[in-house]
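It is worth pausing here to work through a concrete case rather than discussing structure prediction in the abstract. The textbook approach is simple: state the sequence, then state the predicted structure, then interpret. We follow exactly that order.
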Amino acid sequence: MSAPQVRFASPRHLPDPAALAGRVVVLDIAFAADGSGGVSFASVTQVFLDGLGDRLAAWVDHHDHPLAAQYNADDRFLLVTKQEAGACPEMITPELVHRTGPVQTVLTHLDLDGIYAAAKWLLGGHSPYPEADADARAVDTRLLSPSPLGETIDLALRASSRDDGLRHRIVRFLTSGCPRDGQDWELIQEARDAYAAMAARTLQVASGYRLEGRVALVNVSPAMGKVDKTYLLLLGQELAEVAVVQQSGMITVAAAFDSGFDFPRLMGLGGGMPTRASAPQDRLQPLLDALNGPPPTSHRD
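Step two, the predicted structure:
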């Protein structure tokens, strides 16, 4: 039997179910959050589920969503919160893969967490290297540092965030025993090395952060070039509890994984990661009001 096809997607942009072969397992892809740029669970996730129907073999995810509880009775869904599982690969076990049975497509999130989850599924629920689960957790929560191998792959992906070809090479590298003498490893290292220029540009952009109470804000214009938004948010969190990046009519807000913030609730979004969320620009002022209190009302005599 041939190996399953691996496809990459995000919660807001799911593929046409008709384009996916056979039984499908979905990994590390959250249910779409309502209220974010017109995207909703009904318009994206529900349409995808309806189109896939009985071909859905399993859906494994660790992002908070108010509708997750409605799927508890369906054995195909393994849905927990971010606090319960810091990363998706730790949820994938040999028992889960065996119970799910053969699949023809693995649809996974396009970040390191999703790529590692896909590799682990292809390996029958076994980790591609001893530190892999810990590396995925470290990268997804940003609480700890990954191993040297995990850091190399993380930086490579951050430098080439739109390169599905690189993602497929990383999956192949992980499922082939992580050989350090092949072309896949050479290309991963090349992508990692290219990250240095982006990191320097991100540091420069971070010099534009301004403080508003508990929040550090920075605006990123197209003229500034490509930046690493995750790194930019982390730099903002060195200045304030909460960092906000304004870019192309959207805001991305983030705080430490263990900070206790629930940004989807504060911005009126229907689900998502509690400590990192994106929303249209018009949600910025309500967010600032919620975090700092509304500005005082001026009165004229």
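Step three, interpretation. Residues 183-206 form the longest helix (24 residues). The chain has two domains: 5-193, 207-292.
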